[in-house]
Write a structure and sequence with these properties.
Order of helices and strands: HEEHEEEEHHEEEEEEE
CATH class of the largest domain: Alpha Beta
Number of helices: 4
Strand order of the largest sheet: 5-6-13-9-10
Shape: globular
CATH architecture of the largest domain: 2-Layer Sandwich
Largest sheet: 5 strands, antiparallel
Radius of gyration: 20 Å
Oligomer: single chain
Distance between the termini: 51 Å
Low-confidence stretches: 5-22
């Protein structure tokens, strides 16, 4: 990029930032956010299909505390859409109203609690959990390697493959309410059906605690 192109690019960025400030709703005024907040962000940049219209606003929080601050300030009338990798997500050409929140960079923690249980953040790739379980010679989670999205999305829709579903592994989850409250809930409080879940009350997943089999050789797969 030469000097002229760099100058033009800087002017475009400055104009975009000015437009973002002018187009910001009143409830965002004075709100100190450490993450990135952009206006009219093309969703094609955040979906695997590389297609779709623009989000009215897109927020990439710095961490959970930053996201909580945003949620506590957002009015109930503000439409909110949380996405992870945007895997197999098709956004209409007309875009999305309100704020789209990217969680993959926020809920990325992966912590083994003991030899069989892992606490995986909602933004962790399902395939990553499958690989780590396999290295520990644990069974029951191999099917996660065939799910292209994140743990949060898998929990929300009870994703599965090869005759297995993620909620068969779930021991407990952490959720985040629209008002910014984080709470831990046991798996018994939810009812998992085929590609759907009952029990979420205007909340999203922060993490899930999964329990695997000790012997990987005990897992039987149903091939399609």
């Amino acid at each position: 990029m030469n000097r002229r192109e760099a100058t033009a690019r800087a002017m475009q960025v400055a104009e975009g930032e000015e437009a973002s400030v002018l187009n910001s709703p009143a409830w965002l005024t004075g709100l100190s956010l450490r993450g990135r907040l952009r206006s009219h962000e093309p969703m094609s940049r955040h979906c695997t299909w590389r297609a779709g219209g623009a989000a009215e606003r897109l927020f990439e929080p710095a961490d959970l505390a930053d996201l909580v601050s945003f949620l506590q300030a957002a009015p109930l009338a503000e439409p909110l859409t949380l996405i992870g990798f945007g895997s197999n997500l098709l956004v209409r050409d007309g875009g999305l109203p309100g704020t789209v929140i990217l969680t993959a960079g926020v809920f990325g923690q992966l912590r083994w609690l003991d030899e069989r249980r892992v606490e995986a953040g909602a933004g962790v790739a399902c395939a990553k959990v499958a690989r780590q379980a396999a290295r520990r010679q644990l069974g029951g989670g191999e099917f996660l390697g065939g799910i292209p999205g994140t743990i949060g999305g898998a929990l929300a829709m009870n994703a599965g493959a090869f005759g297995h579903e993620i909620w068969s592994l779930v021991e407990a989850v952490e959720t985040l309410s629209r008002g910014g409250r984080v709470q831990r809930r046991p798996a018994a409080e939810f009812r998992a059906n085929y590609r759907q879940l009952e029990g979420l009350n205007e909340e999203w997943f922060v993490s899930g605690t999964l329990r695997f089999d000790v012997d990987a050789s005990t897992t039987n797969f149903q091939q399609p």
